[in-house]
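Researcher: Good morning. I'm working through a list of sequences from a screen, and I'd like to move beyond sequence-only analysis. For each chain I'm collecting a predicted structure so we can compare shapes side by side. This is the next one on the list. No need for commentary yet; just the structure.
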Amino acid sequence: MSDTAMVLAAGLGLRMRPLTLERPKPLLEVGGRTMLDHALDKLKEAGMKRAVVNVFHLAEQIEEHLAGRRDLEIIISRENELLDTGGGIKKALRHFGSKPFFALNADLPWLDEGEPSLVRMAEAWDKSRMDVLLLVMPSGKARGFSGKGDFMMEPDGSLWRKGAPEVKSHVWISAQIMSPEVICEVSEKVFSNNLVFDKAETEGKLFGILHHGTCHHAGTPEDLAEANRLLASGEGWAVP
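Model: Good morning. Structure tokens for this chain:
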């Protein structure tokens, strides 16, 4: 594994308005800590030495916040236009060398139980079989998800969604390991990670690993308030 990871923090946070009109979504707090710091904490726990953080919306606030961290070397990747998730990673690709690397969204906190999920992901990575490895949860166990799931998962861990039922069995909870080659192969400048996922699925190289713990998708102000309420009350994020 590369000892440098990516945290995606450039989005506009449209569904989180009006909170994100004056504060970028990654700096909104869950349990008294920003969602961006939750992501960076997990990377540090997994042994990362550096984190590339891409910024666009209210970039100065994120840069000022990150200046206070000393436990990780922070590399800012400032975007002059939104490059989407895949394009943002492609712009920063030189920092990861030729090794597979972590990429995390900065807006979906999770809590681990037992061995950290990122450590388990690194242990499960198999370059001979995988181009992408996603951290997933059964849809019924993931808090705050109002959609119909993201992927179907097979017993061997392979993921698929082409031709899948409308309601899918698992949701992706923001963490992934990627081979740099799958990003290099994309010619576009602006593109979504979904383009990479679709290609990996077609080639049988898209896999998932189950998260052991809880999560709460904080996509709207109401979701964020509920996530904090559950933590403050001691109820937690586990689905009853």
